Amino acid sequence: MLETAKPSGGDIVKSVTGTLDIKYRFSYGERYDRFFREMRDNKRIMGIACPKCGAVLLPPRPYCGFCYTPVDEWVELSDEGALLTYTVVHLPFIGQPTEPPYIYAFIMLDGADVQFPHILGEIEAADVRSGMRVKAVWAEERKGTLHDIKYFRPV
Amino acid sequence: MALKPPELTYMEGESRCDYNWTTGEVVGTFLAALRDHGKMLAGVCESCGQVAVPPTSYCESCGSEVSDLREVGPRGVVMSWARVADDFEGAPAEAPFRYVLVRPAGADTELLHVAPDDDGIRIGATVRPEFRPREQRGGAITDIRWFVPDGAESEGS
Amino acid sequence: MTRPVAVIGTGQTKYVSRRDDKNVPEIVREAGLRALADAGLKPSDVDAVVIGSAPEIFEGVNYPEDWIAPALGMCPGPVMRVHTGGTVGAATGIAGFYHVASGAYDTVLAVAYQKLSDGVPQYGLSACYDPLWDRDFACGAPALVGLQSRQYLDRHAPAVTEEHGAMVAVKNRRNALLNPYAQIRREITVADVMSSPPVAEPLKLLDCCPTSDGAAAMVIASEQTARKKCPRPAWFSGVGTCSESPYVPHVDMAYPESCVRAAQQAYQMAWIYEPARELDVAEVYEAFSFQELIWCEALGLCRPGEGGKLIESGRSDLDGALPVNTSGGVLSSNPIGASAMIRQVEAAMQVMGRAGEHQVDGVHRALAHSWGGAIQFSTVTIFSDEI
Amino acid sequence: MIDVGVVGWAQTQHGTLERETHQSLIYRVVNEALSSCGMSIHDIDVVIDAGSDFLDGRGISTCITVDAMGAHFKEESKIAGDGLLAAIYAYMRIASGLFDTALVVAYGKSSESSPRVQSLLMTDPFYLRPMGLDATAAAALQARAYMHHYGVSEEAPARVAVKNRAAGATNINAQLSSEVTLDQVMESRPLVSPIRELEAAPVTDGACAVVMAGEEVAKSLKVRPAWIAGSGHAMDAFSPGAREIHKLRSAALAAAAAYKQAGVTDPSADLDLLEVTESFAHQELMLYEALGLCEEGEGEKLLISGATALGGRVPVNLSGGALCANPVVATGLVRLAEACARVADRGEGDRIDGMSKAMAHAAGGLAMQTAACMIVQG
Question: What is the pLDDT along chain C (387 residues), one digit of tens a residue?
Fold first, then answer.
C-alpha cells in the first residue's frame, strides 16, 4: 500500500523543523507602572492594601484576589523579610538570565501578606534555612523590572 | 521622592522556541516524493474514495483510514486565488505574488500554494508545478517553487 | 440531581519520550479509536468531541483542535477544546461529563494529548510565568515544585524526609512495570533516587517525571447507552474542581486549599464521608515524588503530616489497603496535557475491571486527582461501579 | 434541557488599550456584568472563561487572570476558542442541574503582538505554515471562490462594510465609530486582494462578560433575562482545500442544531435579529446563506434589499459587528451580549420594540472552519 508509493530515492521525511519567534509588547498597565517606577526611581517596594480584608497584596492589581474588593491604597513595604521557602535550581532553561545553580526563593517582605519571588545571593545553598531573614541588594542600574533588585542576601 | 518619567508602558518580550515535528508516514512519504521525484502524491480514502492532496493518514471528509497513495497532477486547475502586494517576514515568495488553491488532475481536494502575480492565474486556469532544482529541495511543501500557468515558460529556463 | 453518566471505554497510546512514527493528529486518533473500540462504538456513534491539551507552545500550533479533531472522524461535528493547564486532561473528562449530564449529548469522545518531543517542554512551562513578575527566576515546573516540596519537608520534619519522596518514586516505578503503556519501566531503589543528580533541590532527577508523547481517551455516555454497551461502566459519582489565586494571603503549597475544596465537593456528591476507608484506589497527579504525599494528605487519604508514615506503611502499595497510582503515575509517563486524563482512565479501568496486570481486586470506588497552574488548579473525580 | 437565562452582560470599550492589563480589563467587565443583574461575585457558582495563550504571550494564562475573574476558590474551567463556546459550556453546566449560576468571561489584547503571526500560528507545520498563510490570505481565497461561484459583485462586501460601519457609529463601545462610504471602502488599501482594508476587522483589545442563571435564580432577580432557546457548535475539515470553501458548512450545522432546539423553522421569519462574526465583510454574505436567511448565492440580493439593515426584516449586526470592533476570543461573546441587550425587556435604551428572538454567532479557524451559535429570547 504505502510501500508502492514510497519514494525509492531516499527515506521518507521523518520530521519537519521550524522556529517560532513571536514578539510581544506586554502592557505594564497603571499598577505595574507605578510599582516598577517606585523600584526604579526610589528603591521602594510597594504593596496595595485591601480595605476590606486588610491584606497587603503583591503583585499590584486593581483588586484583592481574595475578597474581590477594588484596591487602591499603596503601602510601602520593607525591602527586608523572612524566607518562606526556597529551591536550588540546577536546571538550565532558555532565556534564563541567571546561570544555574541558583537559589530561587519566596520571601515574605515585612509589611506584606503575599510572597515576593526572587533569588538569593551572598550565601551557600547548604546554609539556607526557611524562616531566615534576608534583605534586598539593589542594582546600580535600574530599568523597571524585578532585576532592579540584584538578589536578596542574608541579614 | 516623586516618580519620574518615563512611564513604563510596554515591556518588550518574545517567545522563541525550536520545533521538530514528527510527520508520520503519509505526510513523510508525500514530502519525500516531492523531494526525490518531483511528484505530488494524494491519499485515497479506503471508505469514501476521496482523493486528497496534500494527503493525511485519515480522511478529512469521512474519518476513515487513508492507506493508499497515488500520484496526481502535475497539471491542475486554479479554484481560487488571492494577490499579496506587500512583502512580509517569512513570505513564501517575493511580493507581489498570488496564493492559489489548485486542484491537481485526479484529485478531489485542493492544494494551497503560491503562484506568480500573472494574469494567467485565474479561476479555471490550468497550471503546473514548478519544482526547485533537485539539490535545493529539502522534503518540504516549498520544494514546489510555485504553480505557473500551463504553457508559460518557467523563469530562468 | 443530575442524570447518570459513565465512562464506557478507554484508550491510550504507549507513552514514549519520542513518538517518531506518528504526528500529533495521528496520536490523538490512535487513542480515540482505541477508546471507541473498547466501548464497541464507531466514530459515527459519537455525538460530540472534547479535546484537551496544555499550553499550545508545546507543539507550536494555536487552536490545535482545528488541526487535530478531523483525525477523529467527527468533522463536520461539534468539537470543543478545554485548556486549563496541568489539570486539562481531567478537565476534559469533566467537560465530557457535563456534555452528557446536561442532556445536550448522549455519547461523547473525550481525548487529551501532548507531543512534548515536538518542542521544548521546559521552555513551554517557563513561559507560564508572568513576564512582568516571576518569569525570569522560575524554571519550568521543577522550580515551583521544588519550593513546594521544601515547604512540605520543612513543615513536617522529621516525620517526613527526603527518603519518603524516594520511596514514592520506587513504588510508582515498580507499579509501572505492570503497565504496558508506561514509559519508564525500570526498577529503582531508594539509594538510586537519593544519589541521582539534583534538579531543583530537594528534587532529584529520579523524583521527577519524564516528558512523554502520548494521548488518552474516554468514551462518556448516558445511562441508556452505558447499560446497552458496557457490562460494568465506571459511573461519575463525584466531580469537583477548584481554582485559587497564587497571590492571596496564606497560600499554602504544602496543603493546597484548592485540592482540599475540590475533594470535599467530589466526596459530598459521591456520598463519601471517610475517603481513606471508602475509596479502593486513588490516582493522584504526582509529577514529582513528594507531591504524592502532599496530595494524599490534602485529599484526606491520610492525616496532615502523615504522608511519610503512609508510604512507609505499605498501605499505598499495589497490594496495600488503598493502592495509590497503580498505573505507575505521572512519575512513569507524562504527556502533560494527557496526564490528568490518564489518572481518570486508570481510575475508570480499575472500576471497570479492565486494568490488566495492575488490576486491584474488588474495586468499587476509585479517585482521580490532578493539579495545574502555579499549584492553584485542582480536580477530583470519583468513579463508582454503581449509580 | 432546563431553562437557563442570560441575566447579565457587559463589554469594555474596545480599541488599542495600552494602559490596560488583561487583569484590569477582566476585573472591570466582570464587575459591570454582575452589577447589570444585581449580583455579587459570591452569587456565582462556576466561572467558564476563554482566552488564548499565544495571544497573551503566556502559557496557561489563567494562572494570573483567575483572580481577576473572581474565580478564587470557585469551580473554574477554560475553553479554547471564542467566548461563545465558553457560554455554551456554561449553559451545559447549569443545565446539568449541579450549578445555579455561571459567569462567562472572554478577553483578548491583540495589540500586544502581531495579528498576522497570531493567525499564522493556526496553521499546521507541514502544509500551510511553510506557505505563510495567515487569516487574511485564507479569507481572501475564500472571498474570491465565493464571489466567483455565485457571481457576487465586487461591491457587495464593501456594501456590508458600509452597512455595519453605519450601525457601529451608534455603538458607544465600538472601536471604529465613523461611517464610511462605498467609495471609501472600494478605494481603501488592498490587504490581500480581493480583501480591502475597510473590509477587514480592526486590531482590537477588549473583553466581555456574561452572567447566566437557572430558571429559579433568573426569575428571582429584579431584571428580566434573555432566555437561552438553543445552541450549537460545529467544526469543518481543517485543510481549506478539503472544504467547499465557498460555503460555510460549520456555520450551517451549528445553526441547524440551535434552530432544532429552539423550534426555529424559518430563520428569517422566526428570528428578529442576528449578531454574527464577520471578521471579513464577505463573510456576512456567506453567513446569510449558511444561517438560512436566504437561499444559497442570494446573500448579495438580501443585503441590497435592505432586509438586514436597521429597520429591515431581519437586521444583522446592529452593533456594527466585528468590522467595528474585533476583540478576538471575545468577539463572539460580544455578539451574545449585543443580542441579549436587544431582546431582554429591561427598560433600558438598547432594547428594540418588537424584537424577541435573536441569534449570536461566533467563528474560529482559518476561513471560518468552526462556528458556534446561541439563540436567546426576551
Answer: 689 999 999 999 999 999 999 999 999 999 999 999 999 999 999 999 999 998 999 999 999 999 999 999 988 999 999 999 999 999 999 999 999 999 999 999 999 999 999 999 888 888 888 999 988 887 789 999 999 999 999 999 999 999 999 999 999 999 999 999 999 999 999 999 999 999 999 999 999 999 999 999 999 999 999 999 999 999 999 999 999 999 999 999 999 999 999 999 999 999 999 999 999 999 999 999 999 999 999 999 999 999 999 999 999 999 999 999 999 999 999 999 999 999 999 999 999 999 999 999 999 999 999 999 999 999 999 999 999
Neighbours of D151 (CB within 10 A): 8
C-alpha cell at C33: 479509536
Q: Report yes or no: C262 and C232 within 8 Å, Cβ to Cβ.
A: no
Contact residues on chain C for B63, CB-CB shorter than 8 A: 43, 70-75
Closest CA–CA distance from residue A100 to any residue of chain B (Å): 20
Distance, CA of D333 to CA of D65 (rounded, Å): 18
Q: Kindly state whether residues D187 and D336 are assigned to the same domain.
A: yes
Residues D148 and D84 both lie in one domain: no
Exposed/middle/buried for residue B41 (C-beta within 10 Å: 0-12, 13-18, 19+) = buried
Sign of CA dihedral D327, D330, D332, D333: negative
The residue segments making up the domain with residue D105 are 4-113+204-220
Check A25 against D41: CB less than 8 A apart.
no
Q: Look at A117 and C123 and tell me if their CB atoms are within 8 Å.
A: no
Q: Please tell me whether residues D281 and D152 are part of one structural domain.
A: yes
Whether the predicted pLDDT of B157 surpasses 50: no
Mutate to test the interface with D, among A16, A27, A33, A34 (most CBs of D within 10 A): A27
Domain map (residue ranges) of chain A = 27-154
In single-letter form, the type of residue at position C260 comes to V
DSSP symbols for B116-134: ES-TT--TT-EEEEEEPPG
Is residue B2 a part of any domain in this protein? Answer: no
- D177 interfaces chain A, CB cutoff of 8 Å: no
Chain A residue numbers with beta carbons less than 8 Å from the beta carbon of D76 are: none
Shortest distance between the Cα of D69 and any Cα of chain C, in A, equals 10
Nearest-angstrom CA–CA distance, C290 and C167: 9
Q: Do C57 and D66 touch (CB under 8 A)?
A: no
Report the DSSP pairing between strands D357-364 and D273-275.
parallel
Judge if D109 and D119 occupy the same domain.
no
Q: How far is A141 from chain C (nearest CA, A)?
A: 18
Q: What's the domain count of chain B?
A: 1
Q: Report ipTM for this prediction.
A: 0.96
* Number of neighbours of residue C310 by Cβ within 10 angstroms: 25
Q: Would you call C248 and A55 a contact, using CB atoms and an 8 Å cutoff?
A: yes
Nearest residue of D to residue B20, measured between CA atoms: D125
B62: closest CA of chain D, how far (Å):
10
| CA dihedral angle for residue C72, residue C74, residue C79, residue C84, rounded to 10 degrees | -10
Closest CA to C226 of C239, C235, C216: C235
Domain count, chain D: 2
* D269-286 pLDDT per residue, tens: 999 999 999 999 999 999
- Cα Rg, chain B, nearest whole Å: 20
D190–chain B Cβ distance below 8 A for any pair: yes
CA distance B112 to D367: 13
Chain B residue nearest residue C21, CA to CA: B24
Kindly report the CA angle at A125 between A122 and A130, in degrees rounded to 5? 95
Is residue B134 domain-resident?
yes
Where do the domains of chain C lie, and which CATH numbers do they carry? 5-121+211-229 (3.40.47.10)
Residue B41 sits in which domain range?
Answer: 25-149
Q: Which of C83, C244, C379 would best serve as a mutation to test chain D binding (most D beta carbons within 10 A)?
A: C83
Say what the pTM is. Answer: 0.97
